Amino acid sequence: MVKLANRHLVSIDDLSNGEIEALFSLADEMSDSMGRQSDLCRGKIMASLFFEPSTRTKLSFEAGMLRLGGSVISAADIGASSLAKGESIADMAKVVGSYADIIVIRHPWEGAARVVAQYAGIPVINAGDGSHEHPTQTLCDLYTIRKKRQTIRGLRIALWGDLKRGRTVHSLIYALARFGATILLCPGPGLELPEHVLSRLSTDYRGELKRCRDLNQALETGPFAVDAIYRTPSSPHQLAMLPDISMRVELNAGVDALYVTRIQKERQTHTTKEKDLNRAYPVVDKKLLRGKGFKKTLVMHPLPRVDELACEVDADPRSMYFKQAAYGVPVRMALIALMLGAREISVSGDNDHFTTKPVYHVYERDPGIKCPNTDCVSNQETEIRYIKPKFKIVSRMPLTLRCIYCDHELHPQYVASSEWHQGKVANKKYHSANSRFARSIRPENLIVFASEGEAQAQQFKPSSNVRQ
Ligand code: NCD
């Protein structure tokens, strides 16, 4: 049985493939009997905290809760809540957790939903945290693809546009990797998928990523500029074999879905270079869709759209974006009902990523190192007593730490062991992180420094493997 009661949905990886499938069956049921669900969550309260603009996500969550017979309380902008008075997210979470039964939060800081989940004491759903993730949009996206194509495994899905800051794309890519789709990455100029997302694709999902520019060959893709292709370990022809030919085959085979996104203007740094890039942003229109590879392509978009998707496509039977938005209600009704424990539902064979996903040692130490992402909640909160920087140690060679809040990674150069100085200042040595010696330090004893200066400030001296 799937029991999502008392769980959180912060990352799409908080749900297994089997749980997602089961949720979709329940969403089918909800959509067939939308008007007959009003007893399911009667007496329950959903706190709807949207500290960034939202139409679809907020209203479909609220409509979903009302159709389930529950009630909604809301806070609409940071300026109108006590966060504006300097209250920490953690305090807000504890308080709202004592008023409601479930929290839905959208916040501009990456990792904010994770903090709320840690402190609220009730189920928390991430409705978008900065550029990080937007798992419930991914549920709507997958549900739409499933409705049309019955399966996701083996489909070829192109992600188009702002892959750098689009949170919908980040959650979607992890899910597609887990469900076994082939992913074509088609970023706008300068808007490539961030390194930490690529890194998570290879460490956690173990598929194969081939960057087109590495092929040292001009690909005739027209405006459809494929930057990289990702295939899961289960795909039949691995890219490593004859990569050029394999890539060409992929590009000529057409795409099952084209997922268009807008430029995330509100997250741009507005450099002149970026303004120029905006002018070169690709547009999806009738002309493009006349291309050979798009005959049966589902045209998707999380919405809102701006100029990147021409209105002339709306009447085309391949356009799916208003369906994606409409599915938001039954999908979110199913999710709320499961997370409030109002429904349970059985899962068939759940032998997937959830059971095979890597378990990483968590690094947490005072005085700590900081996450390199300035938009991470751990760098924003002034009340640092609550938010301690924490990292998963995802690799020892090179040493790679991944922030548990926002997934950005850092590669510290200097480390020490907590075991070897035995209280004696003379024994306190720091090492080059990539030395053999450093790699033998057990993860629970590892001390990581942001710089040599920091190591010395903590009274460590360079060992012989640190280049002077
Ligand atoms: C998206 C979001 O907020 O990330 N919108 C949505 O929830 N459907 C996409 C966007 O704003 O571009």
Key attributes of the depicted protein:
468 residues; SH3 type barrels; globular; binds N-carbamoyl-L-aspartate; 4-stranded parallel sheet; Rossmann fold; alpha/beta; 6-stranded mixed sheet; 31% helix
At a glance:
The chain is α/β, with parallel strands linked by helices and 468 residues long.
Summarize the helices and strands and which ones pair or pack.
Layout: H1 17-32, E1 45-50, H2 56-67, E2 71-75, H3 89-97, E3 102-107, H4 112-120, E4 124-129, H5 135-149, E5 156-161, H6 167-179, E6 182-187, H7 195-204, E7 208-211, E8 228-231, H8 243-252, E9 257-260, H9 272-279, H10 286-289, E10 298-300, H11 321-339, H12 353-356, E11 361-363, H13 377-380, E12 391-396, E13 399-403, E14 409-410, E15 414-417, E16 429-432, H14 436-439, E17 446-449, H15 452-457, E18 461-462
Parallel strand pairs: 1-2, 1-3, 3-4, 5-6, 5-9, 9-10, 16-18
Antiparallel strand pairs: 6-8, 7-8, 11-12, 12-13, 13-14, 15-16, 15-17
Helix pairs in contact: 1-11, 2-11, 3-4, 5-6, 5-11
Regions with little confidence, pLDDT below 50 for 5+ residues: 215-222
Number of strands: 18
Q: State the CATH class of the largest domain.
A: Alpha Beta
Give the CATH superfamily of the largest domain: Aspartate/ornithine carbamoyltransferase
Report the bound ligands by name, code or SMILES: N-carbamoyl-L-aspartate
Main beta sheet: 6 strands, mixed
Average pLDDT number: 89
Number of helices: 15
